[in-house]
């Protein structure tokens, strides 16, 4: 579903079926206010006012039925009526009382389908929701489109989503927004971004590594850098992953998908920033010229890195991209990456780990995550673990020996490439939902995107 205008429209009094959305605490008062015919239908459906109860009420004609949903979600939740957006037949709907507000987004997200490789079995057609708050529609559409972008990019297998395809996505975004696109590859990449080149050089058949950059906005506005990890497939390199660990590695470009999608929101809603988007795009492949355990890699910043694990490649390519971002003297840098399995062990699949070198930035992101129902959890940049990055022969290692503090040491590695005076946040996310929920199907998904957008809007929109 790409035509979002079919899913959400201004309420101009057009014919629509009614959705009765009732909180359990209001159930008794609501029930007592209903006519006998409705109370009879409620009794026949054994609705007791418990959250999740639902029923259909017949009208005077077969087409005039209405829907009841008992829901204990807060009015700020985008997923309050997502189950209805997913399950109801095609048609036009409005709430019986009040406005859907943030739930407009979940209504749209519930109608997402990834049908690139098979025919969509859902032939019902669009479910249109009416709103009396038309001013909220553009932002809702922008966030829905961004979420669909993340889902589509992450769901696409690596056979059709390599570095070249990420470049094509960025090129299309740049063309639509009037942005400038720059792509560095080949000898220029090897000389200027040696860690990106080292990680991706083993890939062949047009899947060569590259740094993709997009710039947009008034140069007089505050400079904002977004960096996204674009490992389009991760075998683990010569430290090869087992088959179970490789199964979902098409999603290892989920950070790039988030950065691209957020850039799309920023440009569509014209946030007054000078945007610099950077995506190091590689495939971590195995071949005779793959980078090796024990190699010492140069970085763009000039630091040398002893490669202790070829499966800790994401932080290497991000290091070079962060170094480039810093050269533009941004006010703020945000990076997104499916970086460590250890973060998932600690926090699970739905809760991205947040690291930040600025307490005010961290607090703003955490508050936005709560208000937007897009949660984050801060982990520390613990200085005491910095010594775990020591190398006997280089400035640092990319991955310490041992199982401890994996997300933290990865973030500390990235911190080496960002000076203290630039506010920086690193989001270690999963970009995948192993189990479906209303409005959130199994598969690739955006996590932290709405929280980060809300923070940026509060920081810059005024």
Structure write-up:
- It is a single chain.
- With 462 residues, this protein is α/β, with parallel strands linked by helices.
- The chain folds into 2 domains: 4-132, Leucine Aminopeptidase, subunit E, domain 1, CATH 3.40.220; 141-460, 3-Layer(aba) Sandwich (Aminopeptidase), CATH 3.40.630.
- It has 15 helices and 20 strands.
- Strands 7, 8, 9, 10, 11, 14, 15, 16 and 18 form a 9-stranded mixed β-sheet that branches. A 6-stranded mixed β-sheet has the order 1-6-5-2-4-3. A 3-stranded mixed β-sheet has the order 12-13-17.
- A hairpin with a 5-residue loop joins strand 12 and strand 13 (304-306).
List keywords for this structure.
462 residues; alpha/beta; Leucine Aminopeptidase, subunit E, domain 1; Aminopeptidase; 2 domains; 9-stranded mixed sheet; 6-stranded mixed sheet
Walk me through the topology.
Blueprint: E1 8-10, E2 17-22, H1 27-32, H2 36-44, E3 54-57, E4 66-70, H3 82-87, E5 91-95, H4 103-109, E6 127-131, H5 137-155, H6 163-177, E7 180-185, H7 186-192, H8 194-200, E8 210-216, E9 223-228, E10 230-234, H9 243-246, H10 254-268, E11 274-284, E12 296-298, E13 304-306, H11 314-327, E14 332-337, H12 341-347, E15 353-356, H13 359-371, E16 377-378, E17 396-397, H14 406-415, E18 423-428, E19 432-433, E20 443-444, H15 449-460
Parallel strand pairs: 1-6, 2-4, 2-5, 5-6, 9-11, 9-14, 10-11, 13-17, 14-18, 15-16
Antiparallel strand pairs: 3-4, 7-8, 8-11, 12-13, 15-18, 19-20
């Amino acid at each position: 579903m790409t035509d979002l205008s079919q899913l959400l429209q201004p309420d101009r009094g057009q014919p629509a079926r009614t959705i009765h959305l009732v909180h359990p605490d209001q159930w008794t008062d609501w029930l007592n206010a209903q006519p006998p015919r409705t109370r009879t239908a409620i009794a026949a459906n054994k609705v007791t006012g418990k959250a999740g109860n639902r029923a259909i009420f017949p009208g005077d004609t077969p087409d005039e039925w209405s829907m009841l949903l008992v829901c204990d979600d807060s009015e700020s939740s985008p997923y309050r009526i997502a189950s209805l957006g997913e399950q109801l037949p095609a048609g036009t709907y409005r709430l019986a009382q009040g406005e859907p507000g943030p739930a407009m987004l979940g209504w749209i997200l519930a109608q997402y389908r990834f049908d690139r490789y098979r025919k969509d079995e859902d032939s019902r057609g669009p479910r249109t929701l009416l709103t009396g708050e038309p001013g909220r529609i553009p932002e809702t559409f922008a966030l829905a489109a961004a979420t669909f972008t993340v889902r589509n990019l992450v769901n696409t297998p690596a056979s059709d989503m390599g570095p070249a395809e990420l470049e094509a996505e960025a090129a299309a975004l740049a063309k639509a927004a009037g942005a400038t696109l720059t792509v560095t590859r080949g000898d220029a990449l090897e000389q200027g971004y040696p860690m990106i080149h080292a990680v991706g050089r083993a890939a062949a058949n047009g899947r060569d590594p590259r740094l993709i950059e997009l710039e947009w906005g008034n140069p007089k506005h505050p400079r904002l850098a977004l960096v996204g990890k674009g490992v389009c497939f991760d075998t683990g390199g010569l430290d090869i992953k087992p088959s179970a660990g490789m199964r979902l590695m098409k999603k290892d470009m989920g950070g790039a998908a988030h950065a691209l999608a957020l850039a799309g929101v920023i440009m569509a809603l014209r946030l007054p920033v000078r945007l610099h988007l950077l995506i190091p795009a590689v495939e971590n492949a195995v071949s005779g010229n793959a980078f090796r355990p024990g190699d010492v890699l140069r970085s763009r910043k000039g630091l040398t890195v002893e490669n202790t694990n070829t499966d800790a490649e994401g932080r290497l390519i991000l290091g070079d991209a962060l170094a480039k971002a810093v050269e533009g003297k941004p006010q703020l840098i945000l990076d997104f990456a499916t970086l460590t399995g250890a973060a998932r062990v600690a926090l699970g699949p739905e809760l991205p780990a947040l690291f930040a070198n600025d307490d005010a930035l961290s607090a703003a992101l955490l508050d936005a995550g709560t208000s937007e129902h897009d949660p984050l959890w801060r982990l520390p940049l613990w200085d005491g673990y910095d010594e775990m990055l020591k190398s006997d022969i280089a400035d640092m290692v990319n991955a310490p020996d041992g199982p401890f503090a994996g997300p933290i040491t990865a973030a500390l590695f990235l911190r080496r490439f960002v000076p203290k005076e630039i506010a920086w946040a690193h989001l270690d996310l999963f970009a995948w939902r192993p189990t479906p929920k209303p409005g959130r199907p199994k598969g690739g998904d955006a996590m932290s995107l709405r929280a980060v957008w809300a923070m940026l809007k509060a920081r810059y929109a005024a």
